[in-house]
Amino acid sequence: MARVLKLRLRSVEAKIIDLRALDPIDIEILRFIEEKYGGTAPLGELKSVAVVGGLAPRLRELMSIPSVAEYLPPDILSSVSTALAEREIDARIAKLESLNLLMKSVSGEETRVVLTDVGKAVASMGGIPTFRSDSEALAFLHRLRMELPPQSRYPLQSGEHVAISTMDELELSSREVAILSPSPTLSLFGVSVSPRVIEGPFSDRPTLIVGGGYAPIVLERGQVVAIAIAVKRDEL
User: Fold this and answer.
1) Planar angle of CA 10, 13, 17, nearest 5 degrees
2) pLDDT of residue 108
3) Per residue in 10-27, is it b (16+ CB within 10 Å) or e — as a string?
4) Which pLDDT score, from 0 to 100, does residue 83 have?
5) What is the pTM of this model?
6) 16: part of which helix (H) or strand (E)?
7) Among 197, 195, 149, which residue's Cα sits nearest to residue 177?
């Protein structure tokens, strides 16, 4: 017979970095750092190569449409596109740093950008590998955490994802699995809960990821955030 357990929020522990903001140009920059520099690139050289070899020509092409080009002599067009490209690469490096895909390292007067493990995965494989072991996938997920002081009350924004600790222990034998879903109240607002399945044997207070739905909500310590239904494997 199935067992039903309510999982209550203990605290919000971390934000999960959202990589949906990545676009093809960001990925190309990561790939370029990995392929040309082995994952560690001098910042000044990277900016020069990216501007001259990639961004400036692309921006110059965009500005060469008749409605714009007729007002800009060729030398001005070239300098404007280069200046815009320099600002663009600065903004993209800052963006990739904020997403924890690269970090800056200063040695003497030289600044380098270094790809993180997640940045290397995106650069070399196009994304985080999920086809290996569960432990490796979880290790990548852990690197996407931005730790917070434990929050007993937290305003969860639409589309935001947070890692939470729970108050209730889930016990599963080796013959059981638990199927998780958001509480009825949270489901009304399109909130998601993961993982959706926990396999036994398991005996712990599970850490969950709660994803914001279509409206901001407030999470409070002690409220039911998920329902776990434990069933035997042969009943699935």
Assistant:
1) 140
2) 81
3) bbbbbbbbeeeebeeebb
4) 58
5) 0.77
6) strand 3-16
7) 197
Euclidean distance between CA atoms 86 and 114, whole angstroms? 19
SS3 199: strand
The tokens 């919000």 sit on which residue? 12
Spans of the chain, pLDDT less than 70:
50-85, 235-236
pLDDT of residue 122: 93
Residues of the domain holding 168: 3-17+145-235
What is the reported pLDDT for 25? 80
CB-based contacts of 18, cutoff 8 Å, min separation 6 = 159, 160, 161
As given in the structure block, the two tokens for residue 67 are: 């409605």
The residue type found at 179 is I
User: What is the SS3 assignment for 89?
Assistant: helix
The DSSP line for 106-163 is: EETTEEEEEE-HHHHHHHHHSS---SS-HHHHHHHHHHTEEEEEEESEEEEPTT-EEE
How many residues in the chain? 236
What integer pLDDT is reported at residue 8 of this predicted model?
Answer: 98
- Kindly state the DSSP code that residue 51 receives in the 8-state scheme: I
* Total domains in the fold of the chain: 2
Cα separation, 96 vs 92, in Å, equals 6
- Residue at token pair 């035997």: 232
Q: Are residues 11 and 53 in the same domain?
A: no
Whether 47 and 90 have beta carbons less than 8 Å apart is answered as yes
The CATH number of whichever domain residue 12 belongs to comes to 2.70.40.10
**181 belongs to a structural domain:** yes
